[in-house]
Specification:
Helix content: 25-40%
Number of domains: 2
CATH topology of the largest domain: Spore Coat Polysaccharide Biosynthesis Protein SpsA, Chain A
Number of strands: 14
Radius of gyration: 25 Å
Largest sheet: 7 strands, mixed
Structural class: alpha/beta
Length: 496
């Protein structure tokens, strides 16, 4: 593998291997299918997608974009891509010469940093095609694997790489910070890039998540977005959903303390089959608050169902949850809204484990269990999560449409797993956790702890076990020994 001296060297190399490019991909299908599967998990179908270094267009086509543009420095690669996928647009040009002001929702850069003359020039050009919430998905080869890949090329087991850079994640991170990008999250994948039954599965699902082993993986990945340092203001509105079950002693105070956020603040109270006067209190307040909605149904279906119904009724761009017991002060909600309005994150999660709690705000066993679940969820999602069960969360309505509900009865894990699948940056915000003003906690330590553990197993299956590559898909070998009833009963809903 030779160093890159000029762009023409890279172009000549990829022109020379274009006719055999897809054959090389098929020969190492396990490796490339996993790369493609990683991209497909993050890119939501129907988006506007730009792929830089698209080669023959396979990854771009797999994302099912509403508008797909692929660019590559190799004219021969582009000719093949146009033949295979005539419904997409392909251009032979370096990204530095890509003209126009078009903005994309996703920009894919698979092994691009390995083959460009100047990485900072590339990202300077990429910035021109980003809006504030664009997600850039980048993979690159770990430099520690250079001797192994060189040997594989010599024995004909791997596609010739040609002129090649070798950079670590830390090098790219430093460049991105200088260019006003930020890394949502990063990591390693494909600890063992060849398929051996069971062994490859264990290495690429468990081993790649272990601190001592993951840095040995050949593939480094990053999900990146513009940093928002220039105080981007998207001028969004906010829908605050308050799920309620027997909260007549708290609901009025919760509603009155919600501050105005963004261009419009909508409050949606979901009365989840309460047996007290919660609904009556909300109806009385609707005369005073024109932005207050009530969803009222019976019987009780649990917090997760109530939150889902509220979100489905929401009209604003940012969705937020506030627990009716006001254990998290409503006055702190703007701390959740502002990072989304400024495009600094795609998901904001509250953490109650920073500031001291009021006496009895969280029982000792609940606190211990929460810390344990934080470690489990961090392992599964590959993001740092300290408090997974804080009821206050906020994210974009557009992302909610692609989140699967039903893993846990509260919805907390559903949203965190969904954010991880979408490649969102999860930002944790410390909150002051107070004792509930009235009523009793709905959390039962042991019974609900087992329920949440089952939700973690189901999340593990979805994020780790179930992969687009059928050679890794072991879900059929795992018995479904738990089941949650998701059939909706007859409901009585009133909305204003």
């Amino acid at each position: 593998m030779s160093p890159i001296e000029k762009k023409e060297d890279v172009q000549a190399h990829f022109d020379s291997i274009a006719k055999d490019y897809d054959k090389w991909k098929q020969k190492n299908a396990y490796y490339y299918n996993n790369l493609k599967g990683f991209i497909k998990r993050i890119v939501v179908p129907g988006g506007r997608v730009l792929e830089i270094g698209c080669a023959t267009g396979n990854i771009l086509a797999s994302t099912q974009p509403s508008r797909g543009v692929g660019i590559d420095i190799s004219e021969e690669m582009i000719k093949l891509a146009r033949e295979k996928y005539p419904h997409l647009e392909f251009l032979s040009t370096p990204i530095e010469n890509f003209k126009g002001d078009e903005k994309f929702d996703y920009i894919i850069m698979v092994d691009v940093a390995d083959h460009v003359y100047d990485i900072m020039d590339v990202f300077t050009a990429v910035a021109h095609h980003c809006h504030p919430t664009t997600r850039i998905i980048l993979t690159t080869i770990s430099p520690w694997w250079q001797p192994i890949f060189t040997l594989m090329e010599k024995i004909g087991a791997k596609m010739p790489e040609g002129p090649h850079n070798f950079v670590e994640i830390s090098n790219i991170t430093n460049m991105l910070e200088l260019l006003d990008f930020k890394v949502n999250f990063s990591g390693y994948m494909l600890l063992f890039p060849k398929y051996i039954p069971i062994f490859s599965y264990l290495a690429n699902t468990i081993g790649v998540r272990l601190w001592g082993l993951r840095r040995l993986s050949p593939v480094q990945y990053m999900v990146i977005q513009p940093s928002g340092k220039n105080e981007v203001n998207l001028r969004l509105g906010c829908s605050v959903v308050i799920p309620c079950y027997n909260e007549e002693g708290n609901i009025e105070e919760a509603i009155r303390k919600i501050p105005k956020m963004g261009k419009y603040t909508e409050i949606i109270v979901v009365n989840d089959g309460s047996k007290d006067r919660t609904a009556e209190k909300v109806r009385a307040l609707q005369k005073e608050y024109q932005n207050l909605k009530l969803i009222d149904y019976s019987p009780n279906r649990g917090k997760g169902h109530a939150v889902q119904k509220g979100f489905e009724s929401a009209t604003q761009e940012v969705l937020m949850i506030l627990d009716a017991d006001i254990s998290v002060p409503p006055e702190e909600l703007p701390r959740f809204f502002n990072p989304l309005n400024k495009a600094q994150a795609q998901f904001v999660n509250g953490t109650r484990l920073v500031y001291p709690m009021e006496d009895q705000a969280m029982r000792t066993l609940n606190l211990l269990g929460n810390k344990i679940f934080g470690q489990i969820m961090s392992f599964i999602t590959k993001q740092n999560l300290s408090d997974t069960l804080c009821g206050t969360k906020a994210f974009y309505k557009n992302d909610f449409k692609f989140m699967k509900m039903g893993l846990d009865k509260w919805g907390d894990f559903d949203f965190l797993f969904g954010a991880a699948k979408l490649g969102s940056r999860i930002l944790e915000i410390p909150v002051h956790y107070k004792s509930r003003r009235s009523g009793e906690s709905k959390m039962k330590t042991f019974r609900h702890g087992i329920h949440l553990l089952c939700a973690c197993v189901r999340g593990f299956r979805e994020l780790v076990v179930d992969t687009p590559d059928e050679t890794l898909n072991l879900s059929s070998r795992f018995p479904k020994f738990w089941k949650f009833d998701t059939d909706a009963p007859s409901e009585r809903e009133t909305k204003k």
